[in-house]
Amino acid sequence: MIALLLAATLPPPAEAGITFRAGKIERRLAQGLADRTTRRPVRITDPVRLASISKLAVALAALRLVERRMLDLDRDVANYLGWRLRNPAFPDVPVTLRQLLSHTSGVRDAAGYVMALDDDLAARLADPRAWDDRHGSGHFAYANLNYALVAAVMEGASGTRFDRLMQTELFVPLGIAGCFNWSGCPAGAAQRAVVLYRASGEIAADNLRGRAPPCPGLPARDGSCDLARYRLTRSSGFFSPQGGMRLAPVGLARLGMAIVRPGYLSRATLTQLAQPVWRYNGANGETEGGFYCAYGLGVMFTAAATQRVECPDDPVGDGRLRIGHAGEAYGLRSGLWVDPATGRGIAFYTTAVADDAPVGRSAYTVREEAVIARLNGARQARIKRLQAQ
Predict the structure, then answer these.
(1) How far is the C-alpha of 118 from the C-alpha of 46, rounded, in Å?
(2) Could you give the CA distance from residue 4 to residue 45 in angstroms, rounded to a whole number?
(3) What's the angle, vertex CA 143, arms to CA 139 and CA 145, rounded to 5?
(4) Pairwise CA distance, residues 62 & 95, whole Å
(5) Which residue in 176, 213, 245, 364 has the fewest CB atoms around it within 10 Å?
């Protein structure tokens, strides 16, 4: 009760988003404060930590390397890493990039996925807790550690550090002012950062006070942040490839256009991107309450339920299949969803969402459904009903 009373006295949460189609913005939303201390209002051009939508961005860059034949989706990734990667329970089964991108590799998060500068990814994956010892590959279970490995594979294939690789392979080609853990972001980006708050009002992340952080990741155990210590394919979790992307809604929309319009990727690759690698059949994965019903090469699918298995995976509520990704961290909920049939998409985030926030008619929170409804032009009465649930 005290927490509820406290939350009622806090400023409205920052939230922003846009709808887009055929390269054009159709509707905009920006409300609340990007920084409660300075009373700076949020704008759709302000960068924010978008959490797991980062995985989609990493996947697009990886697929670009696949198109150039620097990577192969079905080759043993140990060939790129330079060190052996195997599930101890299934030592003869290779791990592939396709499996890592689709969370069907057998990798799990029980050994931890947050990595300091002096951590060793190979040592982390040598821990049996990092693996599913019952199902092996093919069984879906969402795991952040998969994307530290994807980043490592990209480094091994390119010889380039992950944060720099994302600039040259994704952000610059798409004309996006984005970065991971503020490394490589344009000058002045930190001055416009959206501070993330928890529902209690506590600061959760990116209270930068106008300056980029002195270390673009978790410092080494001795407190130092000398990037000369970074080791390709072994330090790849340092830049948080699983969730550390900073990007504004306008940049997120460009990312959405890139997953349905040929240009950044070929039409053949986009066709592959729009197909699930895994679809829930009632026993072949962990849906986390119907949140995950189908997953592809770094993309989630909404309204993906089949007649055999019902999944409440449609936050838009119109039954149309969309591809994209959701994000959740530090009180933020975010989403990028694009209808591949029409090219119409939505990119948004909302902040200060409680960890136990109520879900709506779908597996997504009421807050997310309300933002989507507002951006889609729903009548105010419907939005109020969503918020009152």
Answers:
(1) 31
(2) 31
(3) 125
(4) 16
(5) 213
What is the Cα–Cα distance from 10 to 2, expressed in whole angstroms?
13
pTM: 0.95
Instruction: Output the pLDDT for position 235.
Output: 98
Average pLDDT over residues 303-310: 71
How much is the average pLDDT of 254-258? 97
pLDDT at 388: 55
CA 110 to CA 91: how far, in whole Å?
19
- Residue that the structure tokens 């055929």 belong to: 22
Give the C-alpha separation, 304 to 16, whole Å: 26
Residue type for position 168: T
pLDDT at site 39: 96
- Report pLDDT digits (tens) over 223-254: 999 999 999 999 999 999 999 999 999 999 99
Question: Using CA atoms, how far apart are residues 286 and 278, in angstroms rounded to an integer?
Answer: 11
pLDDT score, position 346: 98
Mean pLDDT of the region 120-135 = 97
Distance CA 283, CA 91 (A): 24
Mean of the per-residue pLDDT values for the chain? 94
379's tokens: 């009548």
Instruction: Give a three-class secondary structure readout of the chain.
Output: CHHHHHHHCCCCCCEEEEEEECCEEEEEEEECEEECCCCEECCCCCCEECCCHHHHHHHHHHHHHHHCCCCCCCCECHHHHCCCCCCCCCCCCCCEHHHHHCCCCCECCCCCCCCECCCCHHHHHCCHHHECCCCCCCCECCCCHHHHHHHHHHHHHHCCCHHHHHHHHHHHHHCCCCEECCECCCCCHHHHCCCEECCCCCEEECCCCCCCCCCCCECCCCCCCCHHHCCCCCCHHHHCCCCCEEECHHHHHHHHHHCCCCCCCCHHHHHHHCCCCEECCCCCECCCCCCCCEECCCCEEECCCCCCCCCCCCCCCCCCCEEEEEEEECCEEEEEEECCCCCCEEEEEECCCCCCCCECCCCCEHHHHHHHHHHCCCCHHHHHHHHHC
Percent pLDDT > 90 in the chain is 90
Distance CA 284, CA 266 (A): 31
